[in-house]
């Protein structure tokens, strides 16, 4: 849940600016990051700070608030503060979140910001949940058909895999396992960030490599060739492997 909404004020009337600053200070979930008297003055800080919420006057010299809104990228939540009600339709078209007619009370101000705060918190929680769901939970174990049984194998124990005609021989820290499986199917089961194909007949665990010399990978007491077909992709993966 977001603790505070960061705010900017763009208001050319000194008294109106002071009132907004006072109202913001009263609300625990608002944090004022800057007050400016014109969009031109605020443009660069807005771009740099990217606040959550902007209180924006409409009638200002040089550049009015409604003309300034389409220039904002990224665009914060916007609450218009104005003495004129004829801009409400235009504000709606610009996706302004609220429209405070001057002079407005603290109660009216609080209702506006509370609604935005309550809207933002569940949305951010949902976005975080969706981001977490998108991260694939990589398996710690896989199950392989070995003879007439399904054998459980910890992926962290795999050193490399060798293709042998219709079978794959999986070399682990403790044993060798023969399974009737092809590389494509095995690669679907294994965590992709930990294993890489280096030859049409070999797939290796990146974190088990001891060293590489003359296009040959040394893992424990084994030497595995790197073929020209897979070399470029392998070395690219190696540079990015942490």
Explain the overall architecture.
By secondary structure, the protein is α/β, with parallel strands linked by helices. The chain folds into two domains: 5-134, Rossmann fold; 141-240, LytTr DNA-binding domain (OB fold (Dihydrolipoamide Acetyltransferase, E2P)). Helices cover 34% and strands 32% of the residues. It contains seven helices and 15 strands. The protein has helices spanning 14-26, 39-49, 65-68, 88-93, 106-134, 183-189, 228-240; strands at residues 5-10, 30-36, 53-57, 77-82, 98-101, 141-146, 149-154, 158-164, 167-172, 176-179, 195-199, 202-205, 211-213, 216-219, 222-225. The protein has a five-stranded parallel sheet with strand order 2-1-3-4-5, sandwiched between helices. Helix 4 (88-93) links the parallel strand 4 (77-82) and strand 5 (98-101). The longest helix has 29 residues, at 106-134. The relative contact order is 0.08. Residues 125-136 have low confidence and may be disordered.
């Amino acid at each position: 849940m977001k603790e505070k909404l960061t705010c900017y004020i763009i208001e050319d009337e000194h008294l109106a600016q002071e009132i907004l600053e006072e109202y913001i200070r009263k609300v625990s979930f608002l944090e004022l990051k800057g007050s400016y008297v014109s969009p031109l003055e605020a443009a660069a800080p807005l771009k740099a700070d990217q606040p959550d919420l902007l209180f924006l006057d409409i009638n200002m010299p040089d550049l009015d608030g409604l003309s300034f809104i389409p220039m904002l990228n990224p665009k914060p939540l916007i609450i218009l503060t104005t003495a004129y009600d004829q801009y409400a339709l235009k504000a709606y078209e610009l996706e302004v979140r609220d429209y405070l007619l001057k002079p407005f009370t603290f109660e009216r101000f609080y209702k506006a910001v509370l609604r935005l705060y309550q809207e933002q918190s569940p949305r951010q929680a949902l976005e975080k949940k969706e981001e977490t769901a998108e991260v694939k939970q990589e398996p710690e174990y896989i199950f392989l058909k070995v003879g007439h049984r399904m054998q459980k194998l910890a992926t962290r124990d795999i050193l490399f895999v060798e293709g042998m005609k219709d079978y794959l021989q999986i070399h682990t820290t403790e044993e060798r396992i023969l399974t009737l499986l092809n590389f494509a199917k095995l690669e679907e089961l294994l965590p992709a960030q930990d294993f890489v194909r280096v030859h049409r007949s070999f797939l290796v665990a990146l974190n088990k490599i001891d060293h590489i010399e003359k296009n040959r990978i040394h893992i424990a007491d084994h030497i595995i060739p790197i073929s020209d077909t897979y070399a470029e992709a392998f070395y690219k993966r190696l540079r990015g492997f942490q």
